[in-house]
Amino acid sequence: MLDEDELQALADDIRDLGQLQPIVLDSSGRILDGRNRLRACELAEVEPEYITYSGTNPSAYTLSVNLRRRSLSKGQAAMIAAKACSVAEHDPRSETERSARSVSEQAGVSLGRIGQANTVLRYTPQLVDSVIAGAVGIDEAYQTAREKKAQADSAEAQLAKLRAEDPALADRVIEGELTLQGAWAERRARQEEEIRQRRVATQLLCEVLPSLAQTRGSRTFALYDPEFAPPGRAVTREVIEHAATALVEMASVWKERNLP
């Protein structure tokens, strides 16, 4: 779009001389060429004139008129070409006709520039119009886009890793219930709690089992006196039964885990 002064000059010209070129629409009524003329007609309070494009390749037409009418840098031309191709991604042309090489030939810029423009279009779409307007260079925009791409690639890798470790958490991220950062924080908190529980359990077993094992073959059992038992920790037949069952279960777990 023209700046405010340029639009006003165009509006004054249309008011004085009339609209010399019609605004071109596609079959759906979208503007292919003439956004500035439409805005200038509105400013001049002149009823705009329209025609409908009758060709079979509206995106190529838009690209052609933009590149022909304006004095553009290679970066601007590449960005216009990439944007035009993106808008027409569902058109009936073959994939070959929409290829980067085809667009490169139409725009008269290198495949490298088209590649840069496509990266900007995908990862920093907010910079596209600034590049086309010449406010931001294609190299600067491409560098920003590359940084965004690296972040996106990293996020995808982190999500894939999270899915492998905790599918339920990954689903919550995909559903928007959690951010990726929040999911990993929850994952770390769970891991830390699991480590804490393992540490407590290990210390308890290491305190109880070796001492119990030392009583084997001794007179310790015969010397047990309930009178000297700590409050709430008396050894009863029920406690012994539970302990025996626990030892059987423990032996089974040790065997499954192949522990010594």
UniProtKB/TrEMBL annotation:
Sorted UniProt keywords: Coiled coil
InterPro entries: ParB/Sulfiredoxin_sf
Record has Coiled coil as a keyword: yes
Record SUPFAM superfamilies: ParB/Sulfiredoxin
Coiled coil: 138-165
Protein name: ParB N-terminal domain-containing protein
